[in-house]
Amino acid sequence: MKLPKFVVEKRSHLPVWLRVLLPVFAILLSFIFTSIIILFAKKNPISAFYNIFYGALGTRLGLMETIVKTTPLILTGVAVSLAFTGKFWNIGAEGQLYAGAFAATWVGIMKLPLPSPLYILLEIAVGFIAGALWGVIPGVLKAKYKVDDVVTTLLMNSIMIYLVTAVLEGAWRDPVTSWPQSIMIATNAEFPKLVAKSRVHFGIVVALVAIVLVYILLKYTKLGFEIRATGSKSEAAHFLGINTTKTIILTALISGGLAALAGVGEVAGLHYHLTENISPGYGYTGIIIAMLAGLNPIAVVLASFFFGIIITGAQYMSRITGITSFIADVVQGVILLTMLGMLLLQEYGIRRAK
Amino acid sequence: MEAVVSMRGIKKVFPGVIANDNVNFDAYRGEIVALLGENGAGKTTLMKMLYGMYSKTEGDIFVRGRKVEINSPKDAIDLGIGMIHQHFTLVNPFTVIENIILGMKENGIMLKLDDAKRKIQDYMKRYQLYVDPDSKIFQLSVGEKQRVEILKVLFRNADVLILDEATAVLTPQEAENLFKTLKILKDEGKSIIFISHKLYEVFEISDRIVVLRNGKVIGETSPTETNIKELAKMMVGKEVIDIVSEKSRKVGNTIIKVEDLFATSKRGHMAINGISFEVKSGEILGVAGVSGNGQKELEDVISGIKKPHSGAIYFNGQNITGSSPKNIIDFGIGRIPEDRMENGIIGEIPIYENIVVECYDSKPFCNAFFLNYREICKYAENLTSEFDIRTPSVNFPLRTLSGGNIQKAILARVLSREPRFIIASQPTRGLDVGATQYIHSKLIEARERGCGILLISEDLDEILNLSDRIMVLYNGKVMGFADKSELSREEIGLMMTGTKKEALNEVA
């Protein structure tokens, strides 16, 4: 018997329907892989996924929690998308998030006598600047000295997280409980709640505004064009008169600032104080979101919501079925891998040989 | 005589285009058959089907009389068919030997590098393909890399060799050496399929010429039956005349002055050794020379992407030495780069953005922050029709256009800004006859408007036809200047190989 042969060919163009379907395939494929793992644990994967979605969307409380989790993910997702568009490989959204949280706490615990809207604006501004400064260091190193940005951004995460830990174990340790966490920020520095009897806060507005601004930035502005051109081919962009050094630095600056806003929201909108583990890896999930969304800011919202569902639903599912909620991390990891596989399919097609 | 390779009724359809239509093509033992046609005529597509890189839509392929299905290059290699691509497929950090034996079934678990080396050296001697077998690929010149590619194919016992635009990257001397090798191969009974759009070389080396136009075979001929003019007509479909410019009558003030310029190459040695020259407005100064004698560095320094070691460049009397590309553009200097796919365009972004990439930050294309895409698209649409850039829409990524249309887009970008000086490097390399004529006429038009042009080209005919004055470079030094028609082709050839103009009489 002759087996059918398959041939891999480079695509001459990518149909739009495929561009939309590939992330969906990636998600389905990751569900199948995850199901196999659940089966090994002698549990029912269908009930597991049903409970993830039911837990995240089926109840009012669940839906609100999903939105709460979606909020920081949108910001880290769009931060990474912007950076990757300009080929600044920012793996440092986690550290930048902590920089933002750190700065927002600093402003918040000063207990300034400011009207609430002004105080919130100040927190956002200082948080953004903190993340931008943290993000611009690897940007400058890349643009001026060609230092590998993957390494610097990744390693700077540890520096920032341990810096926060050091301050929380020392100067900022809560004097009453003596736990390694900061005191509460001022009441007038808290983000307002948007929905009664829920934890949904003003951060989601900040996140959606950021999405719109980044969309406009990339699509309609000079800087956006420079970022896209530099990301597309930096040698040519340089030859053609674009200041690529400046563009890379600005990309790093904005990306770092956006990721930091996620941290600002977690402190000022959700916890009202700073803890050592204020982020369960939102910065890293942002990378997966950016890939899943194909670096498109609008799609980032959908991808973030999807991950919000997985993270929120996994906890509910765990309580009901007894499967550990770490399965959410497995889903995330597998999606990243399947999506990277799907990106290959964007460039290459497979057909049956005649 | 039975054909080694026979392609019958071949059709290839890409989405929206018929690349090959009912093509019949044969290659026989011991011949060099040229596949001649303009860019986009379907030559490479046809051969990629023979080499298993593309699938055919219709038709049959026979190898040594047997009907075959070739689904991958591996199938083709097993059938004794090898292809040398325009862009090399070598592993840079590996040595020549490692590259040649890479992926061969016979390798086994332990590599027998010494055996391979001996065998490779035999091949080198037999086919005059000399390369140091222990060098790493990145240390080699382009010509040497191509020799490695040919060795790779021969090492796999190919007796049908497909060469895709093999001379496009070679110096005239390297091309001569390649032709010698091809003749040895032919005498051994191998079949050579030589894809080209250069009439002269096809005429020089082929036994048989198959002409393709718009994906169809237009006819078959041989150098003994035809002449270059007829062949050109067959290829293009109409009479072709080389554009030869009259000497400029409106030479004005000095627009660019280069003084005692020194610059290093990427590898770090001094590639330009103290050259001085001037270009006046309304004249074309042609730079003749074998590639690698400082032309690339001269282009990079004037374009602003390389800082000179010493020396000065004046534009309109103003010292612009070491300016950034942005400043160079803003001074009103137009640049048509040699490496147009690497430097000239940002392939992934749309045509309209590529057209304005040098002026997007000025009125009316932007305000303080936003780009005015309506103006940009209108501008790009006007230019695509003015410069006859063939594209269904300016929204397409520029890389999707053909080579000739990409170069027209670069030309449109440069000329639309009415530069006072243009540096054009290899402006027609790899382009078909039609596009070449078009670009030549546009350069002459710019000169008539008073623009000064520095024309760097490896194509001596291009230099002789267009230039008002010629500067010959050798080893980073100026061998001399010549007015239009002052020196013969042979005399310039001598200067290109290191004879100073003053010494020409002694040599002759």
Structure overview:
The complex is a heterodimer of chains A (354) and B (508). Chain A is an all-alpha fold and 354 residues long. Chain A has a single domain (6-352), classed as Orthogonal Bundle (ABC transporter involved in vitamin B12 uptake, BtuC), CATH 1.10.3470. Chain A has 13 helices and two strands; from the N terminus they run βαααααααααααααβ. A two-stranded antiparallel ribbon of chain A has the order 1-2. In chain A, helix 1 (16-40) runs antiparallel to helix 13, helix 2 (45-58) crosses helix 3 and helix 4 packs parallel to helix 6. With 508 residues, chain B is α/β, with parallel strands linked by helices. Helix content of chain B is 33%, strand content 25%. The model of chain B has no long low-confidence stretch (mean pLDDT 89). Chains A and B meet through helix 8 and helix 9 of A and helix 10 and helix 11 of B.
